[in-house]
Specification:
alpha+beta; SH3 type barrels; 2 domains; five-stranded antiparallel β-sheet; 31% strand; elongated; SH3-like_bac-type
């Protein structure tokens, strides 16, 4: 190949490679402050979209702040979320990481019951602070976290379509259940529903429906709430067969 031709071909390859750079490469070429600002905008949008999807309802999102993390391409999004019209707000945190292909991976936590509320509280005090982006090595033990409050705010997500259908349909009594231990009866079969009441050990109730995850809808004469199957023993003789409309929620 003629030297001039080879030089021209190499230049053409370089031009093609340059024009083929995707958004991820463009982001990587930005100065750190500009790259962080771009990631903050995308992370906020991704977190808000994830909240609407996971809570299966129209939501109001406020007090949103973003905090760069020590790892490059990592951002914490913190704020408050409430179901529209409920007047009940709870904190959330989303950890957003840019992947090598330019996409975003979102790890999201919402305070819907005690365990998740505690995690959001701890993660927020660790990540939603200006010092979270510090790349310096710790020379001493990290500071102790504040004591977790006993009255952490939570919200109850809307039931899934499958659960709503179960609760709306008429349920036929499927048998009986005796509580092996005292346990919480919840409004929804997801472990995060409000506690309707605490059922004493030895109580015998009727089973009206079953939901994924091992949840049983129980009640004395009508459906009252959901209890996990791990806490009950099915009675040998089913309760008298009857059809009762689910009335509780």
């Amino acid at each position: 190949m003629h030297p001039a031709t080879a030089t021209g071909f190499a230049a053409l390859l370089a031009l093609i490679a340059l024009t083929a750079c995707d958004d991820a490469a463009d982001q990587a070429s930005l100065p750190r402050p500009a790259a962080e600002a771009a990631l903050a905008r995308e992370a906020k949008s991704a977190a808000e979209a994830g909240l609407r999807q996971s809570l299966n309802a129209a939501v109001e999102i406020g007090e949103v702040q973003t905090f760069p993390q020590s790892a490059p391409g990592s951002m914490a999004v913190c704020g408050q979320v409430a179901l529209v019209g409920s007047g009940q707000a709870a904190p959330f945190i989303a950890i957003v990481n840019r992947q090598p292909d330019g996409s975003l991976a979102v790890e999201q936590h919402v305070a819907t019951e005690r365990a998740s509320a505690t995690r959001v509280f701890v993660e927020s005090h660790t990540r939603c602070v200006a010092s979270a982006a510090s790349g310096q090595q710790r020379t001493a033990a990290p500071p102790r976290l504040p004591v977790v409050p006993t009255d952490l705010a939570t919200l109850t997500p809307a039931p899934s379509a499958a659960v709503a259908r179960i609760e709306a349909e008429q349920q036929t009594v499927q048998g009986g259940a005796a509580l092996r231990q005292a346990g919480n009866m919840r409004a929804h079969p997801n472990g995060g529903g409000d506690v309707v009441r605490v059922v004493p050990r030895g109580t015998v109730l009727r089973i009206f429906a079953e939901a994924p995850g091992g949840w049983l809808q129980l009640g004395a004469t009508a459906p009252e709430g959901w209890v996990h199957a791990s806490m009950i023993t099915r009675t040998g003789a089913p309760a008298p067969a009857q059809t009762i409309a689910t009335a509780s929620r």
